[in-house]
C-alpha cells in the first residue's frame, strides 16, 4: 500500500528564544516491509543544521531554533510504500547487541505487577517465543485498557498497570517490560498508522517488537491486537519511547531568566495518513 503522510506540529514559547535546538526522529528509512519513496522536513522558525544515524539506526535531524522566535513549526511529509509481512521485520542489525534490548529502562523497569502479568508464561517462553509474545499481547490488552487522559510520556510500565488504563505508548511499555521479564529482547517503535475510515489523526502511533530466533524482530501492536501490516510505517526504534521520541527540545535561557520563561507548549498538531493505492 502506498501511504501519503503529512505531519506538522507548531510550538509556542512563553518568551522569545535565545538559543535552542530540536532533535527530530521524524524520517522513516527503507527497510523490511517498507520503501521510502520521498520524504522532506520543513521548518518555520528553525533551520536544519545536520542529519545523522543514531545508535539505533534511526535517521535524526538536528534543527536550530531561530533566535528571537516565539513560534516554531516542524513539518514532515512524504510517500512510503508499505508491505504486509505479518509484522516480521527480520534479522537484527545496527550497532547494538541484542542483550541491550533485554535490559530495563526507567520506563520499562520490572516490578511486582509485571511479574504478576507474566506469571505462568515462563515454560511457554522456553518452548515457543512467538506464541508467548502473542499470549503476552492478549494479557497486556486485558490489563491496560486503551484510554486517553490517564498517563503521560513519563508514565512507567508499572504505573500504567496500576492505573489499568493508558495509550499505545503505555501498552507498548508494558509489553516490552513483560517480554524482558521472560528473557525476550524487546524494543519500542514509533511511527504512523493508517486508521480505517479516518485520514486526519491526533498523533502518531507506537507499538513494540520482540525478537524470535529464526524470524528476527516481529511487531506487536497491543492497542489494535494485531501484528503490523501494510497500514503501518516504522519511523524510529529504541529501548523505550525516550529513544524513539519524534521530537526532543532543548532551549537556553539568559542570566536571570527562569526555565519556565523558556517553556514551549504544543500549539497545534495536524497529521494526515492516507492511502494512494488499494490494499
Supply the key terms.
about 280 residues; about 40% strand; 5-stranded antiparallel beta sheet; alpha+beta; Immunoglobulin-like; 2 domains; C8orf32 fold
What do these coordinates show?
The protein is an alpha+beta fold and about 280 residues long. The protein has 2 domains: about 110 residues, Sandwich (Immunoglobulin-like); about 160 residues, C8orf32 fold. About 20% of the residues lie in helices and about 40% in strands. The strands form 4 sheets. Strands 3-6-1-16-11 form a 5-stranded antiparallel sheet, with no helix packed on it. Strands 7-13-12-10-14 form a 5-stranded antiparallel sheet. Strands 4-5-2-15 form a 4-stranded antiparallel sheet, with no helix packed on it. α3 crosses α5 and α4 crosses α5.
Secondary structure layout:
Elements: E1 2-13, E2 19-27, E3 34-44, E4 46-53, E5 59-65, E6 71-82, E7 88-90, H1 112-117, H2 122-127, H3 129-143, E8 145-146, H4 157-163, E9 165-166, H5 168-181, E10 186-193, E11 200-201, E12 205-212, E13 216-220, E14 232-238, H6 241-244, E15 247-252, E16 264-275
Parallel strand pairs: 8-9
Antiparallel strand pairs: 1-6, 1-16, 2-5, 2-15, 3-6, 4-5, 7-13, 10-12, 10-14, 11-16, 12-13
Helix pairs in contact: 3-5, 4-5
Largest sheet: 5 strands, antiparallel
In DSSP terms (H or I, runs of 4 or more residues), the helix count works out at 6
Oligomer classification? single chain
Q: What is the correct CATH architecture of the largest domain?
A: Roll
- Overall pLDDT: 92
Strand content: 35-45%
Helix-strand pattern: EEEEEEEHHHEHEHEEEEEHEE
Amino acid at each position: 500500500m502506498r501511504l501519503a503522510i503529512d505531519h506538522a506540529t507548531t510550538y509556542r514559547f512563553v518568551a522569545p528564544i535565545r538559543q535552542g535546538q530540536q532533535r527530530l526522529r521524524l524520517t522513516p528509512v527503507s527497510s523490511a516491509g517498507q520503501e521510502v519513496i520521498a520524504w522532506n522536513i520543513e521548518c518555520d522558525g528553525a533551520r536544519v543544521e545536520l542529519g545523522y544515524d543514531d545508535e539505533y539506526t534511526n535517521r535524526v535531524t538536528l534543527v536550530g531554533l531561530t533566535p528571537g522566535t516565539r513560534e516554531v513549526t516542524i513539518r514532515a511529509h512524504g510517500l512510503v510504500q508499505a508491505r504486509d509481512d505479518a509484522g516480521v521485520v527480520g534479522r537484527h542489525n545496527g550497532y547494538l547487541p541484542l542483550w541491550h534490548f533485554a535490559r530495563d529502562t526507567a520506563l520499562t523497569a520490572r516490578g511486582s505487577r509485571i511479574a504478576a502479568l507474566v506469571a505462568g508464561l515462563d515454560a511457554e517462553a522456553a518452548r515457543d517465543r512467538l506464541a508467548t509474545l502473542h499470549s503476552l499481547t492478549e494479557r497486556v490488552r486485558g490489563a491496560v485498557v486503551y484510554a486517553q487522559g490517564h498517563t503521560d510520556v513519563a508514565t512507567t510500565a508499572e504505573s500504567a498497570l496500576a492505573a489499568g488504563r493508558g495509550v499505545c505508548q503505555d501498552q507498548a511499555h508494558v509489553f516490552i517490560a513483560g517480554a524482558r521479564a521472560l528473557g525476550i529482547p524487546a524494543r519500542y517503535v514509533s511511527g504512523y498508522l493508517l486508521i480505517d475510515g479516518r485520514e486526519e489523526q491526533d498523533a502518531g502511533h507506537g507499538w513494540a517488537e520482540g525478537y524470535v530466533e529464526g524470524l528476527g524482530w516481529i511487531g506487536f501492536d497491543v492497542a489494535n491486537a494485531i501484528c503490523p501490516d501494510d497500514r503501518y510505517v516504522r519511523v524510529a526504534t529504541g529501548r523505550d519511547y525516550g529513544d524513539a521520541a519524534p521530537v526532543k527540545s532543548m532551549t537556553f535561557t539568559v542570566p536571570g531568566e527562569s526555565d519556565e520563561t523558556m517553556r514551549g507548549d504544543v500549539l497545534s498538531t495536524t497529521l494526515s495518513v492516507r492511502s494512494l493505492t488499494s490494499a
